[in-house]
Amino acid sequence: MSLAAAARPDPRALNQAAMQALASGDASTAKTLLREAVSLDPGALPLLLNLAGACRADGDIDGATSALDAVLKIDPRSFLALLMKAAVLERQGRTRDAGAAYGIALTQAPPEDKLDDATRKALARGRALNAQYLSEMTGYLKDVTSGARAMGQAAESRRINIFVERLTGRRAIYRQEPTHFVYPGMPAIEFYDREPFPWLADLEAATADIRGELLGVLTEDGPVKEFEPYIEYPDAVPLDQWAELNHSQRWSAFHLFKAGTKDEANCAKCPRTIATLAALPQPQAPNRSPASMFSLLQPKTHIPAHTGVSNTRLVVHLPLVIPPGCGFRVGSETREWALGQAWVFDDTIDHEAWNRSDQPRAILIFDVWSPYLSTNEREMIVQVMNAMDAFHGPPADAGL
């Protein structure tokens, strides 16, 4: 090695000396050493990050910001640089800017078991400040629209609240994910407002009759053989999330209409229920629809997240036996059932249900056409389904 090479400073040695100085509380010396190291190796991200830390410890906010900007120019997704930049903003008292910056850093955070204790604590602080920032912004935006919301309809108020919560990241955006049929132009609405379904009031008015027929079935002498497992896949198909419930009575159904076929024996036991359903806009497609059933969910049972077959129809729930601890999530919205209070939802959006009580939960489930389809579109959709079945026969998992 030449004398010139031997005399040249080593960035690694300078960094080591700087870390020792920083550990002893001499941030100024550490900063000087690291600046020299960076001048020798300007593209070394660890040196730039350490320089930013030394500058921050020395109260040199401009120097820290400059070093972090240099890191992010090389690697815009550098988690440590993004986290430190947010912390610098917080130290400057720019709380809202820091809250937003922490949110950006969170998108690049690695698994926590890959972080040291100091970084985990900084990350936890970042999550808290980001959550506070989003909450305050959500409240501010809702306050701005409070006057207009008070003058509008309840459905309009609900939608603007969802808009604000999505804008501020407080509500995740879910999209339709039909397993089979995707008709264009259908809106992705988790729970529908009641206005497009004027018949809901008549359905709810029949709750006592429908519930009485369900209880009559449940209290028949001997086992209720008509209730069959809702999940019934052959053993040779991938079960994924359904392995636990496949062929299980923990989630069972008393079918009235299944894939367009009427169960005469079951329907004969529920004439008032059938009369109520007959007045509703259910799809009529051979081998596919209508579909209607009493759904029985046993205690301590969870229906995993899943999506439905087609976005041409929606699903209705009428709660009939609802013990405490039962819930239902569609997309980013979670609700609890209440006896006799029906709702309409899009089952092609990710959804799940649970019964955490010690008693069975029972609801009436059936499908209806999407109100966004014209009469002519409904007829053409049925024609397409019929043509598919004529071409290669109805599938085992038929549905509209």
Cα separation of the termini: 79 Å
Outline: elongated
Residue fraction in strands = 5-15%
CATH homologous superfamily placement of the largest domain: B-lactam Antibiotic, Isopenicillin N Synthase, Chain
Estimated radius of gyration: 30 Å
The helix-and-strand class reads: alpha+beta
Q: The CATH topology of the largest domain is what? A: Jelly Rolls
Order of helices and strands: HHHHHHHHHHHHEEEHHEEEEEEEEH
Characterization of this structure:
There is one protein chain. By secondary structure, the chain is an alpha+beta fold. The chain has 2 domains: 3-138, Serine Threonine Protein Phosphatase 5, Tetratricopeptide repeat, CATH 1.25.40; 200-392, Jelly Rolls, CATH 2.60.120. The chain has helices at 3-7, 11-23, 27-40, 45-57, 61-74, 79-91, 95-106, 117-144, 146-151, 154-167, 200-205, 207-218, 264-268, 271-278, 375-392, and strands at 228-229, 251-258, 261-262, 292-297, 301-306, 313-321, 326-330, 333-335, 343-345, 351-355, 361-369. Helix 4 (45-57) packs antiparallel against helix 5 and helix 4 packs parallel to helix 6. It is elongated, with a radius of gyration of 30 Å. The relative contact order is 0.09.
Helices and strands in order, then pairings?
Layout: H1 3-7, H2 11-23, H3 27-40, H4 45-57, H5 61-74, H6 79-91, H7 95-106, H8 117-144, H9 146-151, H10 154-167, H11 200-205, H12 207-218, E1 228-229, E2 251-258, E3 261-262, H13 264-268, H14 271-278, E4 292-297, E5 301-306, E6 313-321, E7 326-330, E8 333-335, E9 343-345, E10 351-355, E11 361-369, H15 375-392
Antiparallel strand pairs: 1-2, 2-3, 2-4, 4-11, 5-10, 6-9, 6-11, 7-8, 7-10
Helix pairs in contact: 2-3, 2-4, 3-4, 4-5, 4-6, 5-6, 6-7, 6-8, 7-8
